[in-house]
Amino acid sequence: MLPFKNTVASVGLLLLINISFQGVKSECLPQCKFDGNDGNDCRDWGLVDGKFVPWYLGSRQCLDLHNIKISGLDAGSICASATTFVNDIQHGYLSSSNARLGLGVSEGGFFEQDSKNDNMVVLKNSITIGRSTYNCETSKSTCYNAMKPYFEDDVNGKKEMNQVCQKLYDQGKNDLQLEQIILRGRLCMDYRNVNTPVPICNPLLDQLKDQMKQYPNKSCNSFQMGVGSKTPPHGCGKTSAATTVLSFKGALPIFTMSALASLVIANLYI
């Protein structure tokens, strides 16, 4: 039978653990994907002085106030269908993109570079799709219309469209994240120079001010850093004890659950 004093000590330790963990806060703060499907809990994780910071996203209103707009690329609309894809090739964002050189390759290519015009990418004089040849000099619209079923039904056409669209989606996500990076730098400089409250930029601005107070001698560029190849402790899903975010309200040191359990077991058998 266990000595009474050790039993009491063990119970006391269990109570201490229970009380302490009532003050533990473990949040799921996933990295924002900037794909239009992010929840309100996502963060743009970065590093400040080697420590992870889950940055809030600045609102569109805050970005507009600071005239931050990287591009108006809407990959979702461009790639909604073969028809919207071809329409954009003809009149939209892709109408000036070199990505067109990779279209229709299995059919000999739909576009080429004009050596007489600074190698500008242009529609060929004629294109062949399947067994049909279309004269693009006579009617460009006929050639573009012929491309629609190619991107809709042809295996190679669908693959080419998907490749271009994936690059557009990636570019769009990168642009949105870059806007947030630029915004943090702009807010930092504005606050240090003017110190004017901007409510529509909260909670990001308040979070940034806390970091600036903590690191008053750091340049604004320090608050624009990403995480590089490091994995932030976002606290989502299955994480190891080393990557789980735990914070205590009291002065009790941070323990992992496994360490606490081991401590209790060890005390029981003293």
Rg from Cα: 29 Å
SS element count, helices: 8
Number of DSSP strands?
Answer: 6
Query: What structural category characterises the helix and strand content?
Result: mainly alpha
Report how far the terminal alpha carbons are from each other. Answer: 12 Å
Note the run of SSEs as H and E. HEEHHHEEEEHHHH
Which strand order spans the largest sheet, edge to edge or round the barrel?
1-2
What is the average of the pLDDT values? 83
* Proportion of residues in helical segments: 40-55%
Strand content: 5-15%
Unreliable parts? 7-26, 238-270
Summary tags:
6 strands; 8 helices; mainly alpha; 270 residues; 10% strand; two-stranded antiparallel sheet; disordered C terminus
Describe this structure in words.
- By secondary structure, the chain is mainly alpha-helical.
- It has helices spanning 4-21, 60-65, 75-78, 82-91, 140-153, 155-193, 204-214, 257-268, and strands spanning 44-48, 51-55, 111-114, 120-123, 126-129, 132-135.
- Strands 1-2 form a two-stranded antiparallel ribbon. A two-stranded antiparallel ribbon has the order 3-4. A two-stranded antiparallel ribbon has the order 5-6.
- Strand 5 (126-129) and strand 6 form a beta hairpin.
- Helix 5 (140-153) crosses helix 6 (155-193) and helix 6 (155-193) packs across helix 7.
- The longest helix has 39 residues, at 155-193.
- Mean pLDDT is 83; it is low at 7-26 and 238-270.
